[in-house]
Sequence to fold (161 residues):
Amino acid sequence: MKRFVRRVFFLFLFSAIATAGGVEGQTYFFLHLQNEGGGDILTLPLRAREPFFIEYIHSSDGTPVRDTFEISEIGHLILIEEAFLWYGAGLEFQSHPGTQVVFDGKWSRVRLNRVLPELPIRVGRIAEQRLTLGNQSIRFDRLVKAGETLVLRVKTEGNRR
Fold:
């Protein structure tokens, strides 16, 4: 009986540490890049509050756009900011509660903190869309064909749908 109680205790302790993100107190999630059918194309582990970026060239203006994202402590995908040089069609412009627009002399930055359940992205032919995380940069048109859709989803485990 003592052995069983000890096992349950250590299992509970391990589960609590894993859920809390380990000894460092960091919570980990998985960012899944999936095709329209929900099949995983790429899975990346991310720490909560670790920024990552989706960058692309605006299709009509030809100027760079950089969206900053993070995953919250409870696993929500959050669009933190959209930065662009010149306003163009399809870029953030609306005033939502808590939205802040800042111009630093070069970049317009719309700070949003918008929670997204998932993010579907139609891969463009000329946009050069890419996900940047740390030193990694992954072009979307190398994962799927132009015109297809990638869906970004956050999950707590690497292989769950």
